[in-house]
Design brief:
273 residues; 9% strand; 3 domains; Translation Initiation Factor IF3
Length: 273
């Protein structure tokens, strides 16, 4: 019976003689990627051993497997995480502020979540049509897929609730939070904008400020359920949002398409009550 052994993966690229190789633009990223692959391969091996049925191991092999697993986790996996937290992440913080997207990693999570859902859906479809011989294997596969999704989703939620939601509370005004909440509900409920033709534009920049709200309200009041238009303004129409949200609670759809500094474009729609 095969058993996984944990290799020691160095994060420093070396020459054949064992001394550090010449510096290159990709030296650090190449070394980190190589270490990631080594860690992932070792962990996959242990997962396969555990899934194969631990009761099939004799006492000596079981002890060796369990010792190898715990040594790998405490001696390789956790030190790798600590090293990145103490060295790599602090170096990346100013780079991300200047050149990257602070929420990019959350979008990667969503990609993996969507892929997990796709895999689970395929396995469920297979299980429904499977004969007795295939059912046990597919059931084991489904168990693993669901557990992987559960772990991924738990980490994703923890990141949102420990990092992002406190920032929402600290830095986003209450009215803007309500607009975001309405947009989240619209997305979650599958509310869609008309797809066959683009929404009409309501250009109000040429109107005196005193007339704009009346024109916009008349246009919105006349919208059928499911209808929409794009408001074009020369400033953020946030006060308008508050008024419409109060009058059309649960019906207002509000999506910023362009946010200044000279032009604001907002897609406004009416959902069913």
């Amino acid at each position: 019976m095969s058993m996984t052994t944990a290799p020691s993966a160095s994060t420093t690229p070396s020459s054949p003689s064992g001394t550090p190789g010449p510096a290159s633009a990709h030296a650090l990223s190449d070394a980190v990627r190589a270490h990631h692959r080594a860690l992932a391969a070792t962990l996959d091996g242990y997962v396969s051993d555990v899934e194969a049925d631990l009761t099939g191991f004799d006492a000596a092999n079981l002890t060796a497997l369990l010792n190898g697993l715990t040594d790998f986790l405490s001696g390789e996996l956790l030190p790798h995480a600590r090293g990145e937290e103490q060295t790599l992440y602090p170096a990346l913080d100013p780079v991300i502020r200047a050149h990257g997207s602070p929420t990019a990693t959350m979008r990667v999570d969503h990609e993996y979540i969507a892929d997990s859902v796709r895999q689970i859906t395929e396995t469920v479809r297979g299980l429904r049509a499977a004969g007795e011989r295939e059912r046990a294997l597919l059931a084991q596969q489904l168990t693993r897929q669901v557990l992987q999704l559960q772990a991924l989703f738990a980490v994703h939620l923890a990141k949102e609730e420990r990092v992002y939601l406190p920032l929402v509370e600290q830095a986003i005004a209450a009215g803007d939070q309500q607009a975001l909440l309405a947009a989240l509900h619209a997305e979650a409920e599958g509310t869609t904008w008309p797809a066959d033709t683009g929404p009409d534009e309501l250009e109000v920049r040429h109107l005196p400020p005193a007339q704009r709200h009346q024109v916009i309200f008349e246009r919105f009041n006349g919208l059928p359920v499911g209808g929409s238009f794009v408001l074009v303004n020369d400033h953020d129409p946030k006060p308008l949002y508050y008024q419409l949200a109060a009058e059309y609670a649960g019906q207002l759809l509000w999506q910023y398409l362009e946010q200044g500094p000279e032009v604001w474009r907002v897609r406004m729609g009416k959902a069913s009550a």
